[in-house]
Amino acid sequence: MTFVPASLRQAWPSPTRPRPIVTIGAGSIVADAHFPAYRKAGYEIAGLFDLDTARARAVAEKFGGLRVFASLDEALATPGVIFDLATPPAAHKSVLERLPIGAAALVQKPMGSDLDAATAILQVCRERRLIAAINFQLRFAPMMLAVRDALDRGLLGRLIDVELHLAVDTPWRLFAFLKAQPRVEITVHSIHYLDLIRGFLGDPKGVHAKTIGHPASDMAQTRTTAILDYGDEVRVAMSINHDHAFGRRNQVAEFRFDGAEGAAYVKLGLLLGYPRGEPDELWIRAKSETDWAQVPLHGAWFPDAFVGRMANLQRFVAGEDKDLIASVEDAWKTMALVEAAFESNARPATPLRPRP
User: What whole-number distance in Å separates Cα of residue 9 and Cα of residue 31?
Assistant: First the structure.
């Protein structure tokens, strides 16, 4: 059978009757990703609330004069909606505790600042019977949905090697709020990749990780190396450097997925010159093919992954999707992997033996 690149799935099915969305928080991620995605998908935005009223009004005006709620209580009293929590990790639990019993919510990643916080959030969601998912949206990016489809069709054979390589110049000045955080790179960035890899391969047996800062940065960590242990057949490696500030020429942001019979290459264009970025790319060497073929992409990580993330939650609430991807139950496991990475980082390396 001839491989047809354009036939790969790149979008999540749309909900038949989507609920309106109430967003809590009006930070840059809302203006740059959430609301552009919801507008692109045709979802109704019922309004937003932020402790900074001026910021909320500015975002509301940018998107055509949306309703700005006067208080959190007023926002949470809106019936029949999906609550979109674009809140800082430290605020997730307090907002979730005030959601109506049985409400549906999409919660910004990470699921708390650490595993203890994630566990507390999980307990709140269970007690209040919330239908809640974490916004791990890379799984829904067009190129990653296409890789998933290629694997499901058997075009690559059994997945046996996953490698991520980033050498980019991330503008940390855009994330000033992270300066005071003790955990940065893995918790707010590489968590996307850890969750994605779990989506492809399930939970690893363990992780070896080292995460450090950079002399030119005031962030706690900006560089990470990690190996995920999936036994003796599957290799998973991550090499991440956010401080390669020597021009675009040799910067890279790429995933390689090697199967037993084929392979896929993904360029994460968003990270090359973030936030403007470059176009994403996907190339596949399918089994029985003699060369690589570029897959024409119909969308990008931002904002299209956010469209799919919300679509899955909407469809699950309506009974149209059987599974809720990255539910709080599943997302807790990603947080456990993040915690294991930090625990590994804290352990001393095996010292070299002295010369005899």
Answer: 27
